[in-house]
Description:
6 strands; 7 helices; alpha+beta; single chain; two-stranded antiparallel ribbon
Amino acid sequence: MKICSICKELLSFNDFNKNKWYKKDGLSTHCKECRKKADFKYGNTEKGSLSILYLSIVRKIKNPRYINFSEEEKDRHRCHMTKEQFLKKWEQHVLKHGYNCALSGEEIVFKRTNHKDSVKSNAVSVDRLNPKIGYTEDNIIFVSSKINNMKGAVTKELCLAILKAHEEKGM
């Protein structure tokens, strides 16, 4: 049994994460439930949300679905930016667009949701302008998850074709 440093409850050792740095008993000082709440709270802040977003991009190609991809294919999904460059790009976005989606102008929010709900939300997301290129400073914009999901893998060429079709129909 162990007392959580946050909620002060006496809990089973199974209610704590392992922590090899904590030499006394090898367990975290706070329980799993308190850690989960703290992570959720942090993820709903600007700094936390952007940090989590950056890490998800960096870790993307480690996902098992990319195992059989060639290095060239992996490069199209790889992050070619440091966290500092990513955060600087965000600062530039805020100066230009405020806390709004670069494409729709809708307000971007920092609220964690499950994946199913995130594709319909205005949570901050990163879009690659050219899906054939990885995440680079020149190839990303900050948009809402909803807009990013709607855009999918639309290319510049497809956008021009759609505009041409509209013009031909007098729209």
